């Protein structure tokens, strides 16, 4: 039997303080200072627990680089630009984006790279991946630590790991969902004894009408408001790519993945990636509330096609061996297809900008006509 120090610690906490809200359990699993999943390992790739879009193909990062260039031009081509990535994985996406940006020396030479990363193992991987980059690169624990200045912010698969609150609808109202210990000593889900007062007042009508037994998930708006306030005040835009739903709705999406397979999120805390789908309607609403402009969301498949992934794939395949051309074709399908094995429909893309940027490439049907 594998040692499970975090499981033992969580059980001890529940025994001493009572049932633990789902958000606190999720936060412990991912960010516990000693045993947290995201502070202790490189979870990416074939040997890890999951694969992200930049690891599927270089085309993903390259197109985000070209998207960055198009936004920079819309901003009036400032001499200095911060390119910020939140949760940069192994640095793969940034390396691919920078390679694409080299063709535009006025932008490339004025770039400062800021990476927001708390995992020391991944910081080392990023340093190795970006060792050939001559630009100024700095690492930060939080977006709050990134110095001011016009910025383009990229956040791929970042919001899905921010802890969620789960609420369960009962006859008496909405109760906070908790993690407790069952009679056999195992973790199980439960609900707080008392409903959360007036919780339904702020709910979208669709959620308010959910049946008894329904689960509703929400995240605090803190992170999205930081990004939106930054681009509103300092010029620039943010691009958020993640899996989730376009409109707020009831549903339990709390899940765990280990070795590329779904597993019970209560089984081995700290040893699997626990995530939940992103509510893009809630993100958009919070960004608009602070006065930023929202673009999209659209599906990842639509976004990548609009910014030219088919053309890029064709150009790469033309120069490739038959084997490599097949790999490129498979990667293209994985990134854009809408079926079960594709990321094209499950993943969504949302743009946030300062109000004067009326359209962002790939995110508006009217972008060529100059606005939403």
TrEMBL record:
This is Class I SAM-dependent methyltransferase. Keywords: Methyltransferase, Transferase. SUPFAM superfamilies: S-adenosyl-L-methionine-dependent methyltransferases (SSF53335). It holds the Pfam family Methyltransf_28. Coiled coil: none annotated. GO terms for molecular function: protein-arginine omega-N symmetric methyltransferase activity. Gene3D superfamilies: 3.40.50.12710. PANTHER family: PROTEIN ARGININE METHYLTRANSFERASE NDUFAF7, MITOCHONDRIAL. One of its GO terms (biological process) is methylation. The keyword Lipid biosynthesis does not apply.
